[in-house]
Amino acid sequence: MNRNESNCSCATCKMMCRTSPCFPTPKEAISLIQRGYQDQLQLTIYTDQKTERLHSAITPKFDQKLGCTFQNRQGLCELHSLGLKPTEGRLAHHSLADDGLRVSVCDTWETQEGIDVIKNFPDSDQEWKNLLLLMLTNRMYVKRART
After folding, report:
1. Which end is more exposed in the chain, N or C (fewer Cβ atoms within 10 Å of the end residue's Cβ)?
2. pTM score
3. Which residues, at least 6 apart from 21, have a Cβ–Cβ distance to it below 8 Å?
4. Which whole-number Å values give the CA distances from 111 to 23, 81, 133, in the listed order?
């Protein structure tokens, strides 16, 4: 996947943030947590509609009416100017077709680093966290068995 970072702030790109938060990599999630944004993050299971494959990640909190927790009143990402905007948000653009960007970001969670970030994420719902960890561990096991 070859994409350039986008700074587009048109109505369509802003609407993307109102319909789904952009997903960070584990390293980006660590940076957000270290900068004090952990209360604005959540454990997430994402279903890829093309393959029906489930993915685990830590993502910005999302409200069905308001959108991404980091979208300000002008519809812009509060993290952008801080250099903390997640990979998916930096590379997404309204003119680009779905070429698997989100799945590529989700795949970065299927690593020991991703498991460790989720394991150490301060979430009160231990059963939910255990489910995500089980999914990631199984996915890593399957990847290793195929190689």
Report:
1. C
2. 0.87
3. 59, 60, 61, 62, 67, 68, 69, 70
4. 16, 29, 11
